[in-house]
Amino acid sequence: MSVIQVKDLKKSFNGDEVVKGLTFDLTPGNCVALLGPNGAGKTTTIRMLSGLLKPTKGSIEFEGAGNKQDIRSLIGYLPQYPVFHNWMSGKEFLVYVGQLAFLSKTEASKRADELLEKVGIFDARNHRVGKYSGGMKQRLGIAQAMIHQPKLLMLDEPVSSLDPIGRREVLTLMEELKKQTTILFSTHILGDAEEVSDDLLLMHKGEIVESGSIEALREKHQTAKLQMVFRGGNKAFIDPIKQLSSVNDCYEEKAELHILIDDLEKARQEILTEALANNWAITKFELSRTTLEDLFMKVVKH
Amino acid sequence: MEELGINFALLAPLLLIQLLLAIIGLVAWFKTEETNGPRMLWLVIILLVSYIGPILFFIFGRRQ
Amino acid sequence: MQWTTIVKKEMLEDFRNFKWVWVPLVFILIAIMDPLTTYYMPKIMDAVGGMPDGTVFEMPEVSPYTAIMMSLTEMSMFGVLVAVAITMAVIAGERKSGVAELILVKPVGYFTYILAKWTEKVILILASYIIGMLVSWYYINLLFGEITIGEFVPLVLFYALWLIFVTTLTIFYNTLFKTPGIVISVTIATLLGMHIVYRIFQHKLSWFPNSLSSHIGDMLNSGSIPSELWGASLVTILVSVVLLFASRYVFRTKEMAN
């Protein structure tokens, strides 16, 4: 069973393929992070799912949506930079969009109060939206997306434009909302994804390169790794190390060389032999295991 | 000016319209934080250009 | 109903941004300025005293019909400009700013959305126009002579069709373009184009929407509704309906996030 099934979803803008055939489905009640660097095609994907863009190819099927039903009544959507009618108050806007989603005026008003309370802007409900801060707008945006109790809530980079405090508040709010609906949110920050999501869709250059639950991915990509630091800069050593037969990959991050390997013993021997022969000035040589961060970096760098 | 044969009761509504336009133009100006172009210039236009000034401000002066 | 919801929201917006105050005031000005200046011009000339004594300043006698047609002529110039200007951003502005992205992911029918926007603007523009014409009628009855209610009502109703057409045209361009500036330019260019075509082929185009006011003039002078007026009205209504459906078509094929 899944809330939404996406098959071979593609999107081109003027012949330039931005999304190159996505296939995935979302399990009800899960919180899924669509993770990828900027330009990976996350926003385009979410906009296609929300009906704002038409797919060039492929299909999107919602569970429980017959041919006649408007899928928009099943989804809630928050764009990366939500824009409201600045002349309206937060409450007025919620009641307005609630009515557009077929709630009666009294229902919409009741639901608006509940949500304003939940997202923590109840005190500002009668102020003009034009006077809201960025964090308040983001929270109003989440409230408007939830007004008609959608089966799927889609948030496009919900926290990336916020300051640390606003970020924390929105993440906590998402934890809360997870209990009520399925969430798909995009982000380019692994930490945000790890914090609230159950599943991960790792996207790069228009394709899903890895997907699964966070735990499963962690396990799967936990391979041995060496971290090395050289006196006088690491860069010069990347290429010689890469050429060693026991090394799968080598890259620099945070002033350390990360060396991905399969066979620890063999690699250690090979690298140390090489180091002795060439008199490398090693200042750090550490054994560790890869994290999701490494997986993310690996994907992004290639 | 009565001898000119101009009935000022008839022209009073025109002055009233002019006044009303200037007043709501002013109120709208106060409420608009961001105008298209210099804010002070719009104030001058609203106050000094009768009739047309406020109308221009309503149509072009405010960012929607 | 979604339609009522959007109409109400648009009404509220136009109250808060004072359109419901200034648009009627402007339409009153537009309607009365020409009849009033025509009436007072000779007196003002006299008073200024630029004429040597004994010069008889002859002004052709202006009939009430001519006077009210002056109101319509000003409407077709400035009234139309105001109508286009207040409609230019009604959909384009929401798409440009990005609000449309929030509104149109709600299960709102696209045609409902267009129709609601159209309805509210037509109500605002026609109400303002009618108020303006009523004031003008009052002045003309005082200054130039009587126009009966039986003459006034058909005149106002027939000419209203032209304003409805102009509003619909602006809405149509709203669905095509995202920039209000482009909407207003293209709308005015279209109206100018229609005007030129009508001027050139006037005699062959007696049912053309632009011919409405000249037929209304004939109606006043002859005392009966000429058949061409019915024809032009029919064409104007048809074109407006076609434009509305064309807007719906354009909107459906458009990608809202683009």
From TrEMBL, chain A:
Family: Belongs to the ABC transporter superfamily.
UniProt keyword annotation of Transport present: yes
Pfam family membership, one: ABC_tran
Keyword Transport: yes
Any one GO molecular function term: ATP binding
Name of the featured protein: ABC-2 type transport system ATP-binding protein
Alphabetized InterPro entries for the sequence: AAA+_ATPase, ABC_transporter-like_ATP-bd, ABC_transporter-like_CS, DrrA1/2-like_C, P-loop_NTPase
SUPFAM superfamilies noted in UniProt: P-loop containing nucleoside triphosphate hydrolases
UniProt organism field: Saliterribacillus persicus
Span of domain ABC transporter: 4-230
Domain of life of the native organism: Bacteria
Keyword tags: ATP-binding, Nucleotide-binding, Transport
From TrEMBL, chain B:
Subcellular localization(s) per the UniProt record: Cell membrane
InterPro entries (UniProt xref): CLS_N
UniProt keyword list: Cell membrane, Membrane, Transmembrane, Transmembrane helix
Cardiolipin synthase N-terminal domain: residues covered: 21-62
GO cellular component: a single term: plasma membrane
Keyword Metal-binding found: no
Transmembrane segments: 6-29, 41-60
Lineage top rank: taxon: Bacteria
Pfam family, one: PLDc_N
Bilayer topology term: Multi-pass membrane protein
Protein known as: Phospholipase D-like protein
Originating species: Saliterribacillus persicus
TrEMBL record, chain C:
Main location: membrane
Keyword Transmembrane helix tagged: yes
Domain ABC-2 type transporter transmembrane as annotated: residue spans: 75-246
Database matches in InterPro entries: ABC2_TM
Keywords, sorted A to Z: Membrane, Transmembrane, Transmembrane helix
Localization: Membrane
GO molecular function annotations of the record: ABC-type transporter activity
Transmembrane regions: 20-42, 62-92, 122-140, 152-174, 181-201, 229-251
Membrane-topology descriptor: Multi-pass membrane protein
Gene Ontology CC entries for this record: membrane
Pfam families: ABC2_membrane_3
Protein name: ABC-2 type transport system permease protein
Lineage: Bacteria, Bacillati, Bacillota, Bacilli, Bacillales
